[in-house]
Amino acid sequence: MKQIFAGEENAVHPIFKTNIRAFLIQMKLNHTDFVPAHAFAGDEKDQQAYCAYVIEQAQAQRDLLRTPTGVVGVTQPETGLPLQVVGGATLGLADLRKAGLTMEVARKNCELYKATTGAQQEIQYALASLEREALRNRLTLIEQASKSLDALVEQTSKMVEAQNATRLMLFSLQTTKIKLNADHADTQAKLTAIYVPPLSDLPLKELVAQKENSEARAQRALDNLSRQDNWNVALTVGVHQQVNPVAQGAQPYGMVSVNYNLASRAINKHLDRAVEAHDEWKKLQEGDVVRGMEVLRQQLVDSVAVQEARLQSLQEENQELDKNLQLVATPDTSAAFDFRNPMPPGSASSDTNRLVELVCLASGPAVSLQSGPQALCHRSCG
Questions:
Q1: pLDDT digits (tens, 9 = 90+) for 283-298
Q2: 335 CB contacts (<8 Å, ≥6 apart)?
Q3: Neighbours of 95 (CB within 10 A)
Q4: From CA 370, how far away is CA 148, in angstroms rounded?
Q5: What is the value of pTM for the model shown?
Q6: Where are the domains of the chain?
Q7: Mind listing the pLDDT tens digit for each residue in 52-64?
Q8: Which pLDDT belongs to residue 103?
Q9: Separation of alpha carbons 239 and 328, rounded Å
Q10: Residue 69 to residue 31: CA distance in whole angstroms
C-alpha cells in the first residue's frame, strides 16, 4: 500500500490522516478473506493465537486514534505580521468513535475466524470420519461372521469325523475363515491410517450457519467503522508565541472545526450494498465453507446412491438364494441332498454367507450399516 499511496500514510492533515487510518484498520482486521483454505484446519491454540494477534493490532489502532495529535510549527497569519511559533494538540470526535469500533471489529473478526475454522475442519474431515465409521462397522460384521464361522467349522469337523460331511466342505469353510482373518487385518490397517481430529458435536449445517452469522456481524462492524469517515468534529487547543519581535508571554488559542462529507448518503448506500454483495460472493466462492458444504452434500448423495444400488443387488441375490434353497427343502435325490446339506435355510452357513456379503457392502466410505445412509447424511450435512 505504501508503494501505491506513497507519502500519504504519514500525511499531516488531520482529516486526511483519519481516512488513511480507517483504510489501514479495514485492511488489517479483515484479512481472513485472504487466508488459504488449508489454513483453516487449525485447533483451539491456532484460534487463540490468531485472536491474540488481531486484538493486539486493534489495541494499537485504538490507542493511536484516541490519543490527541501534537502540532508544533511556525506560522505567519498574514503578510506583514510577525512570525509566531504555534504548539498544541488536536483530537477528533470521529477518531474517538473509531477507537471503540476498532475493538468491536477485532472481536467480530476473532469470532468469525473461530466459526470458519470449525466449519472448515468439519468439512475437511467429514468423509474421513464417515470412512472410519464404515470401517469400524466392517470390523464388527467380520467379527460376527467369524464367530458364526468358528461354530460352523467345529460342527462340520464333527460331521467329518462321523463321515456325515466331506473334507471339501470343511476345507471351504477353513478357506473362508482365512479370508475373513486377512480382511480383518486389512481393515484394521486402513482404520489406523485414517486421522480424524476431535470434531464438533453440532451438525455441519449449524456450524456453517454460525459462520455466516459471524461473517454478517463482522461486515456490519466494518460498515459502521467506514461510516465514521463521513464526519468529524475536531477540537484544537494550544499556545502561540510571537518570535520577531519577541512578545512577552505565550497566548492560548482554541479552535473547533466541523467536517461533513456531502456524499455521505450515497456512500452509506454503497456500503450497505457491499455487505450484501459480500454475502453473495461468499456463497459462490469455491474456497468458502458454504460452497464446501454443498460439494460435500453432493458427494454424500452420490455415494449413498451407489451404495443403495449395491445393497439392493445383494438383497436380490439373497432372495434368489432363498428360492433355490426352498426348491430342495425336501431332497429326494443324492444331488439334492448334497446341495441341501451344506447350506440349509436358517443354518449357520447360510447366516455366515449373508454376513460376508454385508461385510463386502460395508467397505463403502459413505455408508454405515448400523446407522443407515440417511442417518449418516443427516449427521454430516444437518
A1: 777 667 877 888 888 8
A2: none
A3: 24
A4: 19
A5: 0.60
A6: 14-123+202-284, 126-196+293-381
A7: 999 999 999 999 9
A8: 94
A9: 115
A10: 28
Nearest partner of 123 among 207, 44, 224, judged by Cα: 207
**CA–CA separation, 119 vs 41, rounded Å?**
9
Q: What is the pLDDT of residue 60?
A: 94
Residue position matching grid coordinates 470343511: 170
Cβ-based neighbours of 146, under 8 Å, separated by 6 or more: 177, 180, 181, 184
Residue 369 has pLDDT above 50, yes or no: no
Q: Residue 254, by phi and psi: left (phi above 0), alpha (psi -120 to 50) or beta? A: beta
What does the block give as the cell for 154? 467345529
Question: CA-based Rg of the chain, rounded to a whole angstrom?
Answer: 37
